[in-house]
Amino acid sequence: MNKYQKLMGNTLIFGVGQLLSKLVGFLLTGLYLRCIPKEEFNTAELIYSTVNMLVPMVTFSMADAVIRFGMAKEYDKRKIYTCACLFVLGGMSIFMLFTPLVANISKFAGYSFLLYVYCYFSCFRQIASQFVRAQGAIKLYLADGVFAVFVQLIVNLIMVAGLHMGVTGYVMGFIISDAISLAMLTVIARLGQCLHMKYFDRKIAGEMLRFAAPLIPTYMLWWVTSSSDRWFMTYMVGEGESGIYSSGYKLPTLLMLVTTIFYQAWQMSSIEERNSRTLGKFYENVFGAYTSLMFIAAAGLIMLIKPLTFVLTGNGENGKDYFTVYPVVPILVAAMLFQCFCQFLSSVYTTKKRSVNSCVTALIAAVVNIILNIVLIPKYGMYGAAIATAAAYFACFAVRLFDARQYIFFKVDYLRLIVNTGITVFMCVLIAKAPKLWVLWVILCFAVSLIYNMDAVIKTLRKILSRGTVRQPQNAQGNAGSANVPTNYGERR
Fold first, then answer.
1. Coil vs helix vs strand at 70
2. How far apart are CA 163 and CA 128, in angstroms?
3. CA separation (Å) from 43 to 26, 246, 250, 273?
4. Which of 17, 98, 295, 420 has its CA 20 to 30 A from that of 118?
5. How far apart are the first and last CA of the chain?
6. What is the mean pLDDT, run by run of 10 residues, along the chain of 493 residues?
């Protein structure tokens, strides 16, 4: 099986698990919007986003190190897992000292202990699941993800819908599902055999920390870009509108379904092929098909945004409030689209161990986001927050597209990117302004996007499939590659 076939196979495997997880997640979103008032929902979402920000800090971003080093054959896997867990244990001990400080934050009053427990299980479960994935146990990794989200659904049906526990029930759903998932992975994958002080290696721990340390501020900066708008909204225009705006993020996450499925497989392929002479061509073929598919998916989601929002929110008392967010959602879809592209390019930094570059480019996005939030939210409310987020991700993508190709060079069809971006922006304007016959215009835009991009997808797939039937000659060192391809193709020194 060659690298293209393996990438496609892993993508399909990840797809099955992710589709089930996202389907249950979609049902959970509908449950939250029907059972949790918008003010409480805003608090719940702030806890969720805050924990997502804390986990990389508390774990020292060891999940990324586990993937990068865990897939490398030259390292003892037991040492990787032991070092990662010890880093997390130290991080949680430090975080415990700040729990009283967290309790003084008005939004988290009464929830500080739950937040700590949520963070604790989330950290260790993340390390365990990524270690299992790095070892190639993809089916177990996916089964665990599906199982965890089903547990979360059951807990929330009992606590949120049945007992009306609101924010507490929302957070308990994450805690219980993470705890059970961690226990299941530990037993099935026999992770206990990989965890012992005798496996602690200072040299490996130092390498992992040097790789992961720059990713700590990177995750914080991504949190600023993805979540600071909700904090700005809360304090500038009130919790009610902020809660409605937070609900607007739920549909764009459907776009993340596509990229999450693909990226998990792509990240593994990129690391495995890190020493290949044709790595640049690999990136070129995959990036072309990936961006085209993502633009089609974004256009389709924007086209269906109004009926999907209605289905998600319902027509109850809470639903009528949440439904008012639908004109803003296409802008968030555009933001999510460029976030996906940024994520793809981050694989270059992971593969080449250039984590500092991830941090610098994420800083650009955070600065753009904060400045535009301050300028736009007071005047334009939800629209201003969404535009600020989209502009921040676009800025990061533009910089990364230039910077990442200094390490792995691959050709980019800039004209196609510009035309597709123009179509996406035009669709966002149509939904927001709602002129006469806007529905027909939106459908036409989707058709144009589909026709324009399918040609690139088909051509790239043909290249991939044709390469899948060609056996690559080997050089003197035994590495696959074409004799006509220069040894530095795809990499600039």
1. helix
2. 32
3. 19, 10, 16, 43
4. 17
5. 30
6. 67 72 74 76 80 86 88 86 94 85 71 87 93 86 86 88 84 92 93 90 91 85 81 78 76 77 79 75 86 92 84 59 78 93 90 87 93 91 91 95 91 93 93 83 93 82 56 38 34 35
Q: Which two tokens stand for residue 439?
A: 């529905």
CA–CA separation, 56 and 97 (whole Å): 17
CA separation for the pair 54, 122 (Å, rounded): 10
What is the Cα–Cα distance from 117 to 107, expressed in whole angstroms? Answer: 17
* Phi, psi dihedrals of residue 474, rounded to the nearest 5°: -110, 150
pTM equals: 0.73
Question: What's the rounded Cα separation, in Å, for the pair 172 and 176?
Answer: 6
* Burial bucket for residue 187 (CB in 10 Å: 0-12, 13-18, 19+): exposed
Tokens 């992992």 found at: 208
- State the Cα–Cα distance between residues 492 and 409, nearest whole angstrom: 7
Q: DSSP per residue over 373-419, as a string?
A: HHHHHHHHTHHHHHHHHHHHHHHHHHHHHHHHTTTS-----HHHHHH
- Structure-token pair, residue 238: 């009130």
Give me the amino acid identity at 485: V
